[in-house]
Amino acid sequence: MLMAQDDPDLTDVVRWVEALRAAYARSLEDGVACWRRAEAAAAGGAVSATALAQAALLALETMGPADSISLGMSACEALRRHGGAGELDRLRAVRATLPARSGLRDWRAEASRAQAVIEARAAGWCTCAAEAACGAGVYGEQWRIESERVDAEQYCVHMVVRCTVCQSEWQVRQDDGYHYPIFAWSRA
Ligand SMILES: [Zn+2]
């Protein structure tokens, strides 16, 4: 695996996105590792969240039919986590141009989710309601599962989940009767 110092600086977005594509061309693992290093750099303060969001935006804008869905979905995730008002216009514009792919679930929903979450952040709101409206999973540091009850007959789990940012409480029904879990959120 390449060392972090082999990546171009994230503020040089064109070169960074080229390196990202080169990593995906080598292997899916190399591509995913490239995102992981960028997330670690942002978490450690080595690069700004805005730099990572801008790089993710360029990756999405230049996405073509040959690109891995992982590249697009990871770009959406980085935007959702780090994007702000400065990325919104370009994200709205690129949403319509993203290549469709066959799959169980339209990956472009992640771009819509990123847009909804950034809109909430730019408005100064907690992002939990936007995440809930988009059927987010209950994974990650934003959520704390306070209770869960398995309904084996209905292939679902009923949870009470708290947003760790604003402390809002949510009822979440995780439906496992499909090929992938579906999360339905309502205010507790
Ligand atoms: Zn919240």
Summary keywords:
188 residues, 2 domains, binds zinc ion, 7 helices
Task: Draw up the topology in text.
Elements: H1 13-26, H2 28-43, H3 49-61, H4 69-82, H5 85-95, H6 109-122, H7 128-133, E1 143-151, E2 156-163, E3 169-175, E4 182-187
Antiparallel strand pairs: 1-2, 2-3, 3-4
Helix pairs in contact: 1-2, 1-3, 2-4, 3-4, 3-5, 4-6, 5-6
Residues 126, 128, 163, 165-166, 168 line the site of zinc ion (ZN).
Describe the structure.
- The protein contains seven helices and four strands; from the N terminus they run H-H-H-H-H-H-H-E-E-E-E.
- It is an alpha+beta fold.
- The protein folds into two domains: 122 residues; 53 residues.
- Helix 3 runs antiparallel to helix 4 and helix 3 runs parallel beside helix 5.
- The model has no long low-confidence stretch (mean pLDDT 93).
- Zinc ion binds next to loops.
Radius of gyration: 17 Å
- Give the helix/strand class: alpha+beta
Q: What form results from the Cα inertia axes?
A: globular
| Count of alpha and pi helical runs | 7
| Parts with pLDDT < 50 across at least 5 consecutive residues | none
Q: H/E series, N to C?
A: HHHHHHHEEEE
Number of strand elements: 4
Strand content: 15-25%
Largest sheet: 4 strands, antiparallel
Number of domains: 2
The strands making up the biggest β-sheet line up spatially as: 1-2-3-4
Which bin fits the share of residues in helices? 40-55%
Terminus-to-terminus distance: 45 Å
Q: Mean pLDDT, nearest integer?
A: 93
List the bound ligands. zinc ion
Assembly category: single chain
